[in-house]
Amino acid sequence: MGTKKFEVGFEKATEIAPSYIYISPNEHYEGHYNVGILYVESTSGNINSPQGKTNSFGLEQNLIKTEHEAINWAIAWLTEKSQSTVTIAQVE
Predict the structure, then answer these.
(1) pLDDT at 52
(2) I need a labelling partner for 51 at 20 to 30 A (CA). Which of 13, 29, 43, 67 fits?
(3) In this structure, how many other beta carbons lie within 10 angstroms of the beta carbon of residue 35?
(4) pLDDT for the residue 46
(5) Residue 74 and residue 7: Cα distance in Å, rounded?
(6) Could you tell me the residue ranges of all domains in the chain?
(7) Whole-number Å distance between alpha carbons of 8 and 38
(8) CB 38, CB 23: distance < 8 Å
(9) What is the DSSP letter of 47?
């Protein structure tokens, strides 16, 4: 199994969108999964300006025993950070 990528949807507007979850088997700890959350950490500029809008991304990571727990951990982290209900959709 390779890396799975998930797009994150938020019930209400949030400063950490867009966000993505990545889950992959750990090469060194059999039966464990790496989980990473790529999220907007800060934004500058304006979408209506000639320079546009720039997002700087943050990365939150963890090592989890199962893929299901990795997904649950990521959803809980994003829910807490955004103060919004989170949905995810796997993408190719």
Answers:
(1) 82
(2) 13
(3) 23
(4) 81
(5) 12
(6) 4-91
(7) 10
(8) no
(9) T
In the 8-state DSSP scheme, what is residue 12? S
How confident is the model at residue 51, as a pLDDT? 79
Among the listed residues 6, 1, 2, 3, the one whose alpha carbon sits nearest the alpha carbon of residue 73: 6
C-alpha–C-alpha distance, residues 88 and 17, integer Å: 13
Q: What whole-number distance in Å separates Cα of residue 34 and Cα of residue 18?
A: 20
- Please enumerate in sequence order all residues whose Cβ is within 8 A of that of 35, keeping only pairs 6 or more positions apart, or say none: 21, 22, 23, 61, 62, 63, 64, 70, 71, 73, 74
Q: Is 73 in contact with 62 (CB distance < 8 Å)?
A: yes
**What 3-state class would DSSP assign to 68?**
helix
